[in-house]
Every structure is written in structure tokens, then in C-alpha cells.
Amino acid sequence: MPAEVLVMCSACGRPQSAARRRCAFCNAELPEAPLPSRSSPGTPVPSSPGFSPLALELGNRRALAVNGEQLSFQGRPGGGPTLDVPWARVRRLEWRTRPYFEALGLLAFTALGLLWAPTQAVRLLALVAGVIGLGLAALYRHHGLTLELDDGTRMQWPLGMALKGSARERGLEAARATLADAGRMRGVPVAGSDA
């Protein structure tokens, strides 16, 4: 029996059948399934001793790649040009991880619903929205990478959202470790902030 190919939804982080075009949960466009010859997400690519490059698929045709010469980021959803930054220009890296605070916006709906809702059903719906917002903020985290270049320019690369403990988050943490190793080899400090 053939195995089903799954892809991760870049919007909600849930696995979906690669045969689908849109996510069954949030209706976002799904990324294309990787070709068999390509590395799977988070898998190091063979290289010179002491450093393992990384190609990380971020979903919706977005990617982060690290190799001996440069960092590459394809950040436009659905495809677009890749931004390549040579290691010689990088002075500092910062990996940021924070809770999904945007979900707390549902608490505003909760407050409005509890204060001004005309019916009990609307008040209950507002309360449920607040609980969902708190749950999403507690379960999901945003990851981002900031590069400080030799001319003082700061580039911010949003790497996306991941469910705590998911395969996607493990891939992002593998990318963080690879960046730390590559930075150490080149004398580039890699700072990190975890919320």
C-alpha cells in the first residue's frame, strides 16, 4: 500500500494530504509536495567536514538555506526571488522565538461580547473566542531571524509559526543549531530570545 504524502500548512501548521490545494482547517493555500530527489525539511545536505548546510522548507514555497558561502531566504509566500547574503557581510544574527500574541486579539471580541452582547448566545460565543485565543497564544510560537550586516543594515526574516513540540518546530530548532555552528566557525555571534 503506497504511503500518503503530507505537507504542513504554512498558516496553521497542521499536516495535510499533498493532494489537496487548500488547508482543510484554515483554507490557506498549501505548499507543493517536495520532489523525491530533494532533501526533506530540516535534513542537512552533505558538505565539507565541520559544517552541515541546511535547507529548511518553511511552507508555501518559502525556505531558509545555510551553506558555507551564504545564507539564503525565500520569504515571499507562493514563490519569488531568493535573497542571498554572503557570510562575509554578516556581523551578527539573532533568532527570536515568541508566543503567538496576535491570537490574543480575540480577547477584544470577548470583552465586547461580554459587555454589550444582546443575547446569551452571543456572550457564550465571545467567551469561546477568548478561550480559543488564549489557547492559540499558549500552543503556537513565532520564529524569526534578524541579520545585522557590515553596513549596519538589519534584515528581518519571518520564519513562521509552529505548534510547540511539532515536527515543524523541531526543523526550526535544527536550523537554529546549524546557524549557531556556522556563526561560531565564522566569528559571527548568534543571539537568541525565547519567550
Describe this structure as you would to a colleague.
The chain has 195 residues and is of the alpha+beta class. The protein has two domains: 1-37, no CATH class; 90-194, no CATH class. It is 26% helix and 31% strand. It has helices at 106-116, 120-139, 167-186, and strands at 6-8, 15-17, 54-59, 62-66, 70-74, 83-86, 90-99, 140-149, 154-163, 190-194. A four-stranded antiparallel beta sheet has the order 3-4-5-6, covered by helices on one side. The protein has a four-stranded mixed beta sheet with strand order 9-8-7-10. It has a two-stranded antiparallel ribbon with strand order 1-2. β3 (54-59) and β4 (62-66) form a beta hairpin. The longest helix is centred in the middle third of the chain and has 20 residues, at 120-139. Mean pLDDT is 79; it is low at 35-49. The chain crosses the membrane at residues 99-116, 122-140. Keywords: Membrane, Transmembrane, Transmembrane helix.
Entry summary:
This protein has 3 helices and 10 strands; from the N terminus they run E-E-E-E-E-E-E-H-H-E-E-H-E. By secondary structure, the chain is of the alpha+beta class.
Please tag this protein with its features:
195 residues; alpha+beta; four-stranded antiparallel β-sheet; four-stranded mixed β-sheet; elongated; transmembrane helix; transmembrane; membrane
